[in-house]
Specification:
The protein is α+β, with helices and mostly antiparallel strands and 473 residues long. It has 9 helices and 10 strands. It has helices at 2-38, 43-113, 120-132, 167-173, 217-226, 269-273, 313-361, 378-409, 426-472, and strands at residues 137-144, 149-151, 179-185, 192-202, 205-215, 232-237, 243-245, 281-285, 289-297, 304-310.
Length: 473
């Protein structure tokens, strides 16, 4: 008995030590597993992150497309407006020039038909009458071949006046048809005018030159109206690229006093003059900044219309990017909030099940049924059902195993597993059956051996008594 007791105590101590070591090992492994687990990002956060990245990508692509479309539309609109303004000014100026030239030609014909060039006094009255009925014609004058000048107004040539040196005379004499000068300051009114002139023929003989001073105030107003705001500028230049008509009256050419070259508005305009008519280039305007600019000729003259339209695409892109960033941040905040609420409801059950399974991995098999969890999808429902089934089976298995082992501990080896063990749990069922059967056989063998020993003892006792009786006799 002492030896048996000693062996049992030694086994018990060894078994206790083994269990303690196993618990320690499990605890360390569990701690290390928890540390590794805690370093990972939750599925809800990963979902939020991926959804936010997806939304950011969508917003970036959308914003990029919008910026590209805006830039393209702004470019096309600027070119369209530039072409429209150029054509509008060209039409206006061409009509104005042709109308004035028609008046000049009509008066020239009437002078020839009425032989008014011979009677200069009569011619002066005639010219004065024609000026009165015409809004934009400030004066008319006729210079004969001898250089005598007849003016419709009160102006008289100063002493030493040589008509052959005047631009309108030289231009008319050197032209087959009509001649249009640059802008001049009218000697009587001081207004800027242009002079239209043509030779007067009697048969094949040139008897003089007829000229009219046409005020450009209407054209100045027209150019100013088109040059509205900070988006559009229009001006008219001559063959030498001097500015004739400009929205700013200070930037205009007086043929005899001051000539303002187009490059005074910016050196980039020199590049424009090297291009073909109608070709659009990008230059820097002193008032508008970066602009689309082109020029076209005016029919009947050597003048050019220069039109500029703002090309502030860069500023618009910056504005669009700023607004898009504000929109992106706002959408991201709203999306993050909605996604967080959605994923919380959808994935919170997954987190609970994960914690439950983690408890099982740590050896905490006494888990509760997962009731009262909000299920939003079929997959989560399957997961919850599986977790509950696992919980029920483990409880049943643990309860039955605990009962059987407790009965074994009191010497009752008859209990056997009655639950349905599935899958790998069948090994536990078979092991319990083998243990029960083995222990039962061991007890039976022990009892049989005890009975044999008892029988042998009785026989020995009887033999001893018999021998004792014989000895006594």
């Amino acid at each position: 008995m002492k030896v048996a007791l000693y062996r049992f105590s030694k086994y018990d101590i060894s078994h206790h030590t083994l269990i303690k070591r196993r618990k320690t090992t499990i605890g360390i492994s569990s701690y290390e597993g928890n540390m590794e687990y805690s370093k990972k990002v939750s599925l809800r956060r990963q979902t939020n992150k991926m959804f936010n990245i997806l939304m950011a990508c969508v917003l970036i692509v959308t914003t990029t497309l919008q910026i590209g479309t805006s830039v393209y539309n702004r470019h096309e609109n600027a070119l369209g407006l530039l072409s429209k303004n150029t054509q509008l000014v060209a039409t206006k100026f061409s009509g104005w020039v042709n109308e004035s030239l028609a008046v000049l030609d009509t008066i020239s014909r009437e002078i020839i038909i009425g032989n008014r060039y011979d009677d200069l006094e009569e011619l002066k009255k005639y010219l004065s009458l024609q000026v009165q009925n015409r809004e934009y014609i400030e004066s008319m004058y006729f210079a004969d071949a001898r250089g005598t000048v007849v003016h419709s107004g009160a102006w008289t040539p100063p002493s030493g006046f040589d008509v052959s040196t005047r631009d309108w005379w030289i231009g008319a004499m050197n032209s087959v048809g009509q001649h249009v000068t640059d802008t001049y300051s009218d000697s009587v009114t001081g207004n800027l005018v242009i002079i239209m002139s043509q030779k007067v023929y009697i048969g094949l003989e040139c008897v003089g030159v007829l000229a009219i001073n046409v005020g450009i105030s209407s054209l100045e107003s027209f150019v100013s109206d088109l040059s509205y705001g900070d988006n559009t500028k229009v001006c008219v230049i001559n063959e030498q690229n001097n500015v004739l008509i400009h929205p700013d009256p200070a930037v205009q050419t007086d043929f005899y006093e001051e000539k303002v070259h187009i490059t005074a508005l910016g050196e980039d305009y020199s590049k424009l003059m090297e291009k073909r008519e109608g070709e659009v280039i990008t230059i820097t305007h002193p008032d508008l900044g970066r602009t689309f600019t082109s020029y076209n000729y005016i029919d009947g003259t050597n003048w050019k219309i220069v039109a500029s339209e703002t090309s502030n695409v860069f500023n618009e892109v910056l504005l669009h990017i700023g607004l898009s960033l504000v929109m992106m941040v706002t959408v991201q905040l709203i999306t993050s909030y909605i996604t967080d609420r959605f994923t919380r409801r959808l994935l919170e059950p997954v987190k609970i099940v994960s914690q439950t399974l983690n408890n099982i991995a740590e050896g905490k098999l006494q888990i509760d049924i997962l009731d009262g969890i909000s299920v939003e999808s079929e997959d989560v429902d399957i997961l919850i059902t599986s977790a509950n089934l696992l919980s029920t089976n483990l409880k049943d298995y643990m309860k039955e195993i605990s009962y059987i082992l407790s009965q074994f501990s009191v010497g009752d080896f008859t209990p056997t597993p009655t639950k349905d063990y599935h899958g790998d749990f069948i090994i536990i069922h078979d092991s319990l059956m083998v243990i029960s059967e083995g222990l039962t056989n061991l007890v039976g063998a022990t009892v049989y051996a005890a009975e044999e020993v008892d029988t042998a003892a009785q026989q020995l006792s009887s033999s001893a008594i018999y021998l004792a009786d014989l000895t006594m006799k």
